[in-house]
Amino acid sequence: MEEKKISSAVIRRLPRYYRYLGELIESGVQRISSKELSDRMKVTASQIRQDLNNFGGFGQQGYGYNVKYLYDEIGKILGIDRKHNMVIIGAGNLGQALVNSGDFAKRGFIIKGIFDNNKELEGKSVNGVSVMMMDNLKKFIKNNDIEIVALTLPKEAAREVAKDVCEAGITAIWNFAHTDLSLPEGVIVENVHLSESLMRLSYNIANKGNKN
Amino acid sequence: MEEKKISSAVIRRLPRYYRYLGELIESGVQRISSKELSDRMKVTASQIRQDLNNFGGFGQQGYGYNVKYLYDEIGKILGIDRKHNMVIIGAGNLGQALVNSGDFAKRGFIIKGIFDNNKELEGKSVNGVSVMMMDNLKKFIKNNDIEIVALTLPKEAAREVAKDVCEAGITAIWNFAHTDLSLPEGVIVENVHLSESLMRLSYNIANKGNKN
DNA sequence: TAGATTGTTAATCGATTAACAATC
DNA sequence: TAGATTGTTAATCGATTAACAATC
């Protein structure tokens, strides 16, 4: 108990550590110091040690960190040491692309279903998952132990569906719609706003050179 | 000259202001105070005023902000008051989804081409844009005034292609590959790491309740 | 043991919030 | 003019970096 609150800045960096450690494993590196990792990742060694020590002492003085061990520990912290069942709502291009991508399954995020309310898509097979109609959604969530809902829908529909799935007991939403969702207490939202990302790129193009 | 450096925290918030202002315009609201906007956006009024005043005084004492004017000004700051030509490299599911989406064109990001090195995709029409082979890429970039390259490729290929397009004069990359790109000085990268986003969601699921 | 490198405390830096005078 | 609300300075808070004692 009495857990200290971890800042979101730290959490934002964890998956990046995880990715670098994964690549180190692939290239056969077994131990690494915070200094060496800091050189590769272009962050300070101090930040790496501070970040990790939010969760425990994973290193050893005079030695550094065992790559595989640290990788596994960060995996546990991130909650990817177990499977997460997911459904995609919205079988448009992006929704289908998510289903088609194998990347998420590799990390334990299992796409159990994809939903839409366009009758023409009903039954269409996307990477072996067939598109279902929205009226089956609530029942499907309950019967298939679904934890995460990804919303790849227009904003108005997304707001409605978000409300519905929360009523069905969902507490984690991966939101690709161009809107913020206002949800009950305790429901977690992770937003992916692609057009905002592109605008930041555009800002940096427009202000290139103002680096002073 | 003597521009003060704007922090990336501010830049990250700008597109969100832009989005809220756009919705206010749609619902016919003509003026808004920082207080009122802060209530809607769940940020402090102080932060809104500080953020905006990095770029100029867009409001009026005793009145607030003119919604349409502020919207347009933020659009200019973000560099979306003009068109940006873009190509997508990697005609997989995600690449095709980006081409199929009309959202980017609406904001002035025009997808001029999509490339792959899979011969089977050559000539395939995606939303009216036909897939080209990579050996045409450099020439296409030069002849079509391409400013932004989106990389929707596996990481190894992305690193290579990034190098190539920089040689062809590209200075802005929208990177969806699961890797960081090391690029020449002055080249801008905006990363979209979907699996990292999903891991943050997973972290928050695993640590739900530790809100103290 | 000597050298290396962590874990952790202290110092610095930057971002957010509060306060209020300026002014529409 | 009086009321409202900005623009901006000052205060606070939090995150990052530096330093170093602990220890493998």
Question: Care to describe what's here?
Answer:
2 copies of one chain form a homodimer. The first copy, chain A, has 9 helices and 10 strands. The first copy, chain A, is an alpha/beta fold and 212 residues long. Chain A has 2 domains: 8-77, Winged helix-like DNA-binding domain superfamily/Winged helix DNA-binding domain (Arc Repressor Mutant, subunit A); 84-196, NAD(P)-binding Rossmann-like Domain (Rossmann fold). In chain A, strands 6-7-5-4-8-9-10 form a 7-stranded mixed beta sheet. A 3-stranded antiparallel beta sheet of chain A has the order 1-3-2. The model of chain A has no long low-confidence stretch (mean pLDDT 95). At the A-B interface, helix 1, helix 5 and helix 9 of A face helix 1, helix 5 and helix 9 of B. The structure holds a DNA duplex (24 and 24 nucleotides).
Instruction: Summarize the biggest pleated sheet of chain A.
Output: 7 strands, mixed
Shape of chain A: globular
Number of H- or I-type helical stretches of chain A? 9
CATH topology of the largest domain in chain A: Rossmann fold
Specify the CATH class of the largest domain in chain A. Answer: Alpha Beta
Largest interface (C-beta under 8 Å): A-B, 57 and 57 residues
Number of β-strand runs of chain A:
10
Give the DSSP E fraction of chain A (strand runs of 2 or more residues): 15-25%
The helix content of chain A, as a percent range, equals 40-55%
Specify the structural class of chain A.
Answer: alpha/beta
CATH superfamily of the largest domain in chain A: NAD(P)-binding Rossmann-like Domain
How are strands sequenced across the largest beta sheet of chain A? 6-7-5-4-8-9-10
What integer value in Å does the Rg of chain A equal?
Answer: 20 Å
List SSEs of chain A in N-to-C order: HEHHEEHEHHEEEHEHEEH
